[in-house]
Amino acid sequence: MSTPLPANRRSRLLEILERDGAIRLESAAAELDVSVMTVRRDIQDMDAEGLLRRVRGGAIAPVLPRAFGERAATRSAAKAAIARKAAALLPVEGAAAFDASTTSGALISLLSAQHLVVATNSIDNAAVARRRPGVRSIVVGGELEERTGSLVGPTAELVAASMSYSRFFTSASAVHPEFGMSEVSLDEASVKATFASRADETVLLADASKLGQQVLARALGWSEIDVLVTELDPRDDRLDPYRDLVEIL
Fold it and tell me: Which portions of this protein are annotated as coiled-coil regions (predicted)?
């Protein structure tokens, strides 16, 4: 066994985290050709540095507010796969709401509508919607959350609540079978809850790295979510805890 230097080993662990959405002790040790104990120690040190979040059996990405551009560069292949799946749910007329996530942005980029109003609390996502055929783009306004680029607060909620939507498409910071979907910001959670309250259906777009996690602010419970779309095969056992809670695509 030729052990990689610590700096190289940690770089490779971060590559695994980006590629798979999580680090699993045994598989990472096999891939790096080191012991499980070595990977465990690296994860402990990297957790202390804020590079990842240690969980039972490995690690996941740290759940922190991040700028739109930074989020867009993370798990891009998974987001594209989710968008392709969810495209079948996109309405062609009426009104639909989208949160400020980059996953919603990937889905908006696939829109081809006739007379569709798109409401969002993201300037970036509104700009994408504005370029799509048959779409009228509306930004709900509000206070800029500078860490994420989202628009939040009472004004955003008031405008979001003033319309009705056939579907609300939203991602989440974390998705848990008991806690529901949650956010790192109370303000973000509140805007999403407002959009969902005015929608006929809510579609949750979440990559596998979000599953089994929970963070500060609960946004929606499972009774308020109609469809869960991930990049996984719907038969994947990682989705087993959610099968009795929601329709899975």
Answer: none
